[in-house]
């Protein structure tokens, strides 16, 4: 493993978020939960989960419960590559459930406030094709979507 990993700041609920992500993303698990030290820390009472280490598809991630001093936003997102439309649909459904917020062009915020991009591999393939006009049409179609749909993007690419 490398020496660089994401560090996510939660007001509270870092352990629940890590458990949720580990249940949704294959090859993921919560690896350690460190309680707040005696006397606690700002945003986290003594003995409550303070630092949560987990892996997402084998990538190490650290989360912290540290109160409302900083907030997750769309400037940082997890990029989730999906093999087909069924996978896009499944991840979209589970990540927007229970208070998640669908966004534009495949972006969403889950119920814990973390932003995700749920992207079919086919979009990555379309964007690298040599037909610039077809790519432009596919991009224009994508810009009208919330959850990404492969079929309309492929149709837009081909309609020339």
TrEMBL record:
<feature type="domain" description="PhnB-like">
    <location>
        <begin position="5"/>
        <end position="119"/>
    </location>
</feature>
<dbReference type="InterPro" id="IPR009725">
    <property type="entry name" value="3_dmu_93_MTrfase"/>
</dbReference>
<protein>
    <submittedName>
        <fullName>VOC family protein</fullName>
    </submittedName>
</protein>
<dbReference type="InterPro" id="IPR028973">
    <property type="entry name" value="PhnB-like"/>
</dbReference>
<dbReference type="Pfam" id="PF06983">
    <property type="entry name" value="3-dmu-9_3-mt"/>
</dbReference>
<dbReference type="InterPro" id="IPR029068">
    <property type="entry name" value="Glyas_Bleomycin-R_OHBP_Dase"/>
</dbReference>
